[in-house]
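step: validate -> pass
step: tokenize input -> pass
step: predict -> running
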Amino acid sequence: MPSQPSKTLETFENPHSQRDYTIRIKVPEFTCLCPKTGQPDFATIHIEYIADKLCVELKSLKMYMWSFRDEGAFHEKVTNDILGDLVAVTSPRFMRITAEFYVRGGIYTTVVAEHRAKGWKPEIPVVLA
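step: predict -> pass
step: emit ->
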């Protein structure tokens, strides 16, 4: 049976929850519909997060992203909806969604939305000379 789009996001236990480390996921084929015209909007979605106890499972993420294909949504809404849904299932220490929408009418749109867990503070980055 072929795969189907789904709003169900699955998770797995973070194998190194004692450590802050960054997980970066790039979704270069995101599609939704313009709520005004019904025409497709294309974007690359960048997901960066520091997991706490759970990580998002990638096949379910693929099916989740596919579920937006036939939905009308403004760029700002869809970006924040993705962040909200991922935060709801993973409860990360930090998460950033960057949605880079392709040109439409001569205009590019990039929307960035972030979540920080209450009380979480990033570690000081190491800079090597």
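step: describe -> DSSP finds two helices and six strands in the chain.
step: cleanup -> pass
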